[in-house]
Amino acid sequence: MAATSSKAESTLQKTSLDVYTESDKQQHKSTSDTVILREVDRESSQDLDSDEDTTPGLDEFSGLSPYERKRLKNISENANFFASLQLSESAARLREMIKRRQPPASKRKKPKKRENETGCRRSMRLLKVDPSGVSLPATPTQPTLIEDENPMLPPGPLEMTPENQDADSELFKRFLQTWAEVSKTSGKNTEKDLPNIKSYKANLNGMVINEDTVRKVTKGSVFSVALHPSEIRTLVAAGAKSGQVGLWDLTHQSKEDGVYVFQPHSQPVSCLYFSPANPAHILSLSYDGTLRCGDFSRAIFEEVYRDERSSFSSFDFLGEDASTLIVGHWNGNISLVDRRTPGTSYEKLINSSLRKIRTVHVHPVHRQYFITAGLRDTHIYDTRHLNPRGSQPLISLTEHTKSIASAYFSPLTGNKVVTTCADCKLRIFDSSCISSEIPLLTTIRHNTITGRWLTRFQAVWDPKQEDCIIVGSMAHPRRVEIFHETGKQVHSFFGGECLVSVCSINAMHPTRYILAGGNSSGKVHVFMS
């Protein structure tokens, strides 16, 4: 019994460490039972044979083994002992004492601001208060002006002042005087003067390029190229993405530069022609909604047509005297302009059946017909049946599957039409009989994917040889190619180190064997005999 008491005391010391735990009476009892069982099991093997007391109250367990009777006796005694200590009541009292001692949680109170207390010193200017204490009136907010990257040039004529040279220099004055006196010396070539393909190839083989015939003419990509029809002097005109028009006189003296750059427009110059009636006039059309005529004799760029609400894409001459023009708009509209009428407005504005117009070209013989290149359709119209509210085309060419870059009649008879499409095909149609349908004659496979940074290709006819077309090439080494209307390649212009870039826009002289090609950096490459 004394051994049991010592074991109970040690067990009590272990259990007293858990007085402050939150458990009920049954949890303490089960814990003490577990501890007692462990102690009894540890010593039962030692006292199993010697300790065989017959404890009163255990008669009903007389059938158990001595070990089991000893174990049950210890459990009963320990349970009575822990119950006499009243540990659960002590733990409950301690919990109540802890709760009473804990202070209630309270938020920090903000000090009240005294009404007469002087605050921090602040700037009266930032508070928008007058020194006398009167509030200042609110300053009116001015609207922020967004600067236009390409502001429109003022209406009216502009002086022909070169940006790269002095306008008062003797060289520039002599340049204007020379080209003002140049007249067209030969009439329009006819079909009987058309050389055969063999002699044509021989003449092409004699055209070469060198360092003197390559020059940077404009700033930025070349969007249009034109050659003056003179047979004694060579003048190349180039329209740029920046709105510049560059003139390059290749017959200049060696000490002269020969390049004169003007700024008649504020956006890309997409179309450029020398006047067929007066070669001293050069007409330029721009995305900025203006069409101007550069007059060498008066040294001005006269405004022919202006529409600030629209953007122009292309134009052509309706009459051989260059007095009437047809202008294509990017939004699909068509304007008829008469230069003899005062003002800079149109005579008639027509809504076409196209959503967008890229190029416009007039039939060289039957000038009442003109062809337009749209997004995926090419239409032929008759100017005699144009309706301002909406006009339907005479003929629609629907063979194209992607965007169309250009469409042009053949230069002498207009019996053929060439189109350039983004599906890497050049198509030639038979337009000798303009009826309800125009048959497709030839399809030429040609890479027309120029990408984002290069000007799109436009296949054009050679004005001397109307059965041959000229187009740029993406092939290496760089070249300019000529194809026959049957699809056969006639010639390729290679330039070696003088031609290391893609000439997207090309033009051929109407009577001489001179080819000018412009690239996307403003350079013009000239092949000549």
Give a written overview of the molecule:
The protein has 529 residues and is α+β, with helices and mostly antiparallel strands. Helices cover 18% and strands 29% of the residues. The protein is built from 6 helices and 29 strands. The strands form 7 sheets. The protein has a 5-stranded antiparallel β-sheet, with no helix packed on it. α2 (25-47) runs antiparallel to α3 (66-85). The chain starts with a helix and ends with a strand.
Write the layout of secondary structure elements.
Elements: H1 2-16, H2 25-47, H3 66-85, H4 87-101, E1 158-159, H5 170-181, H6 197-205, E2 214-216, E3 222-227, E4 235-240, E5 245-249, E6 259-262, E7 269-274, E8 281-286, E9 290-295, E10 300-306, E11 312-317, E12 324-329, E13 333-338, E14 348-351, E15 359-362, E16 369-373, E17 378-382, E18 395-397, E19 404-409, E20 416-421, E21 425-430, E22 440-445, E23 460-462, E24 465-472, E25 479-484, E26 489-494, E27 505-508, E28 514-518, E29 523-528
Antiparallel strand pairs: 1-10, 2-29, 3-4, 4-5, 5-6, 7-8, 8-9, 9-10, 11-12, 12-13, 13-14, 15-16, 16-17, 17-18, 19-20, 20-21, 21-22, 23-24, 24-25, 25-26, 27-28, 28-29
Helix pairs in contact: 1-2, 2-3
Poorly predicted segments: 1-58, 184-192
Strand order of the largest sheet: 1-10-9-8-7
What oligomeric assembly is this protein in? single chain
Helix vs. strand class: alpha+beta
Rg calc: 50 Å
Task: Give the strand tally.
Answer: 29
Shape: elongated
Mean pLDDT: 83
